[in-house]
């Protein structure tokens, strides 16, 4: 197995965990990318000048959807089925980013490209087969996991000056059966990126000379998600090496965004940015010290998750470390809220022919929610219900009722019903999650000095009201991302389509992307050990050093140390693997199985891996390897490693050479 052999090495130097970047040594540019379930935003940080430059996208006015510059582009890809009548139908990527106003027959929209990236690493089960896993997009439609990954790569390629402005070829690109290592010819959206405070020439030079790319992740999401993100960044050729790609929790990036002031006196090269920001001054953002101090709650409520973090801020923010934060991810946010609007207000007790229980309001209930989403995405009426729910969520906080029609059905939805049936269960569950986090962090509600709220759901007035009651001494700082044109609030809309265009107000620049880009100011926040040693690497090393003989945990650690593994930074994770917890994403999590097509749920590779324990535990003596079963796991890991650009089964050298005294 060639892919496996190249991963082996005689040893792994702990001293090499952090090393200077061998490429672009003199660059001071860092690119922060906030890749969300609904959209993508980005920002450039010039570490030498201490300035942030939010990025926005423009398109030729000839494009039907072009409505001016935008600081956030949709995380979406338009796909088309080709040769549908043949024995081997294929799916083609037609475009990414802003979808057309109407899709021709045979085309469909793939949204929420983020969620599939945490399910598993794409691989070919058979030599000429489709990439596994297969995702059940709707009741009648399944797509390879390679498609959303390639869609993300095409979105990121809009940030590469060498690929900008290239239209998709007439026939697009077939991705289901193409080898993932063949990246030539990937079509790139006809979008041009610009940056506030930078000339196009300076921006292009910076994007071609990046010191690093910094991305966000929900707390607790597996190494698989980070691995797939790095694959997409490398595929878009934003940097040359995985060592230049860094990942930090979204809640931490939200804090870093909050301590970055929003105004600067510099003039702007392009007046287009003013319109994109709704009249705000558009300029690079200066990085200065923040007035925040002491106990701080961060709440970022997006489309897929609510990200929470607690931290005691030091006097000097550059002294912050990853250990100062207690992070938590709650898998209920904007998308689930939309589903609850449908289930509680628009189609109560309707199961759409499914033999499942509908999700409980305010609760994740992920398997039920995945099935419900597939059903809604599988019909025109379901898609209209989803759009109606999004409009209700935006409008009802600002007026008492909202009337709408879908076909022959009419609703008059009351704000009081939205609050009692949907919002209250959400806040109650959020309260329970926060209580658990406060207990884990050893902090008291009265010890919180400020609460920072971001994300679409984080801008709800009800969230601020709840936090002011929950945290009596806290100042609540809220980012009003749900603000839309106030004129529409006084209209009694009797037709859904009458408001769908009105509410598409330009979003503000991506604050979280600015927080990610400014991570270079806070070098100790990056969890280097987690990124250096993935759980896949640790599993691989354990199978190398263990045999049929039973060894104590300390003896196993000594063997790993001889291999060059710094076990002090990952000892708890090693123990979890030995006790039977295989790396998350090696086999899709049980909660994610509902995302998969039936064919993938019966994947023989996964069934073989789960058939037996990999390690045997003797309570008094230690652990030994199941030698026969280890060959099954090794072969599967070899398949994953052979088709990736990164070295899955080796430690990652992190080129995180930011000086710690730059801004003291």
Task: Write up this protein.
With 664 residues, this protein is an alpha+beta fold. Helix content is 30%, strand content 20%. Strands 1, 2, 3, 4, 13, 14, 15 and 16 form an 8-stranded mixed beta sheet that branches. A 5-stranded mixed beta sheet has the order 19-18-17-22-23, with helices on both faces. A 4-stranded antiparallel beta sheet has the order 7-5-6-12. Helix 4 links the parallel strand 14 and strand 15.
Radius of gyration: 25 Å
Give the overall pLDDT as a whole number: 80
Query: Which bin fits the share of residues in helices?
Result: 25-40%
Q: Unreliable stretches, pLDDT < 50, 5 or more residues? A: 1-25, 167-188, 262-282, 481-507, 660-664
- How much of the sequence lies in strands comes to 15-25%
Morphology call:
globular
How far is the N terminus from the C terminus? 51 Å
If helices are DSSP runs of H or I spanning 4 or more residues, what is the number of helices?
20
Sheet with the most strands? 8 strands, mixed
**How would you classify the helix and strand content by structural class?**
alpha+beta
Q: Please count the beta strands (DSSP E, at least 2 residues each).
A: 25
């Amino acid at each position: 197995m060639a892919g496996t052999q190249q991963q082996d090495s005689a040893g792994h130097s702990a001293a090499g965990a952090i090393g200077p970047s061998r490429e672009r040594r003199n660059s001071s540019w860092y690119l922060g990318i906030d890749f969300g379930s609904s959209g993508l935003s980005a920002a450039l940080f010039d570490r030498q000048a201490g300035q942030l430059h939010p990025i926005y996208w423009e398109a030729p006015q000839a494009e039907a959807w072009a409505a001016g510059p935008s600081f956030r582009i949709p995380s979406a890809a338009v796909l088309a089925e080709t040769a549908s009548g043949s024995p081997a139908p294929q799916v083609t990527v037609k475009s990414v980013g802003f979808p057309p106003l109407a899709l021709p027959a045979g085309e469909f929209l793939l949204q929420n490209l983020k969620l599939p990236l945490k399910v598993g690493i794409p691989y070919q089960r058979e030599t000429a087969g489709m990439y596994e896993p297969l995702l059940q997009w709707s009741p009648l439609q399944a797509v390879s996991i390679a498609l959303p990954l390639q869609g993300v790569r095409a979105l990121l390629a809009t940030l590469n000056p060498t690929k900008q402005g290239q239209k998709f070829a007439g026939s697009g690109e077939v991705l289901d059966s193409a080898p993932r290592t063949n990246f030539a010819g990937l079509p790139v959206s006809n979008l041009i990126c610009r940056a506030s405070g930078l000339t196009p020439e300076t921006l292009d030079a910076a994007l071609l000379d990046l010191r690093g790319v910094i991305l966000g992740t929900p707390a607790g999401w597996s190494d698989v998600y980070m691995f797939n993100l790095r694959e997409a960044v490398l595929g878009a050729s934003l940097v040359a090496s995985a060592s230049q790609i860094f990942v930090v929790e979204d809640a931490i990036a939200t804090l870093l965004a909050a301590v970055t002031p929003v105004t600067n006196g510099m003039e702007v090269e392009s007046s287009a940015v003013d319109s994109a920001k709704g009249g705000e001054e558009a300029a690079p953002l200066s990085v200065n010290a923040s007035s925040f101090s002491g106990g701080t709650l961060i709440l970022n409520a997006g489309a897929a998750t609510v990200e929470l973090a607690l931290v005691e801020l030091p006097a000097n923010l550059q002294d912050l470390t990853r250990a100062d934060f207690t992070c938590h991810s709650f898998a209920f946010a904007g998308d689930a809220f939309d589903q609850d609007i449908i289930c509680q207000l628009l189609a109560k007790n309707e199961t759409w022919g499914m033999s499942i229980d509908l999700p409980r309001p305010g609760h994740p209930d992920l398997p039920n929610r995945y099935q419900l989403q597939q059903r809604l995405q599988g019909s025109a009426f379901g898609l209209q219900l989803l759009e109606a729910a999004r409009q209700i969520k935006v409008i009802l906080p600002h007026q008492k009722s909202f009337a709408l029609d879908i076909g022959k059905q009419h609703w008059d939805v009351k704000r009081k019903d939205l609050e009692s049936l949907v919002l209250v269960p959400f806040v109650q569950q959020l309260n329970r999650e926060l209580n658990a986090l406060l207990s884990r962090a050893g902090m008291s509600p009265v010890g919180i000095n400020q609460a920072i709220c971001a994300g679409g759901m984080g801008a709800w007035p009800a969230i601020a009201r709840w936090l002011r009651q929950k945290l009596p001494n806290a100042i609540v700082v809220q980012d009003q991302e749900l603000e839309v044109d106030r004129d529409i609030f006084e209209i009694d809309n009797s037709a859904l389509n009458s408001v769908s265009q009105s509410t598409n107000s330009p979003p503000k620049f991506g604050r979280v992307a600015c927080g990610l880009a400014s991570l270079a100011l806070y070098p100790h926040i990056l969890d280097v050990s987690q990124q250096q040693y993935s759980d896949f690497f640790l599993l691989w090393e354990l199978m190398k050093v263990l045999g049929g003989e039973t060894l104590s945990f300390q003896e196993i650690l000594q063997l790993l140390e001889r291999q060059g593994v710094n076990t002090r930074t990952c000892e708890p994770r090693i123990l979890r693997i030995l006790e039977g917890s295989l790396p998350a994403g090696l086999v899709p999590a049980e909660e994610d199985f509902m995302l998969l097509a039936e064919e993938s749920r019966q994947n023989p590779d996964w069934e073989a891996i789960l058939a037996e324990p990999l390690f045997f535990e003797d309570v008094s003596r230690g652990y030994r390897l199941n030698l026969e079963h280890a060959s099954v796991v090794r072969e599967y890991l070899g398949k994953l490693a052979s088709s990736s650009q990164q070295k899955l089964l080796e430690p990652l050298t992190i080129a995180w050479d930011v000086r710690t005294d730059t801004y003291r």
